[in-house]
Amino acid sequence: MIRGKVEDGYVKFFFRDNGQGISTERLSALQENLDTIEPQGRGSYGLRNVNKRIQLFYGTDCGLRIDSNEEGGATIAVKILKLSCQEHKKKMSYSE
Prior knowledge:
Blueprint: E1 2-7, E2 10-16, H1 24-35, H2 45-58, E3 63-68, E4 74-81, H3 85-95
Antiparallel strand pairs: 1-2, 2-4, 3-4
């Protein structure tokens, strides 16, 4: 399931599946890896890189969050600033 909403000046997307879920240990490692400067161990570079790119462009209060669902599966939340087309274009020109 994919949902989106605008709330408190942010656009939030939620990607939810109904698979096996994520163990508490793995979920903790994934969240920790999203927040570190250098990844721990092997793998998980993709999510970390996406999170860092979102934070560099939109600010450190934005990014990814991964949670396990009680009934199984996982949810990845993406939070970005709500910007007008002109604000976004202006921000893009500064980031080049």
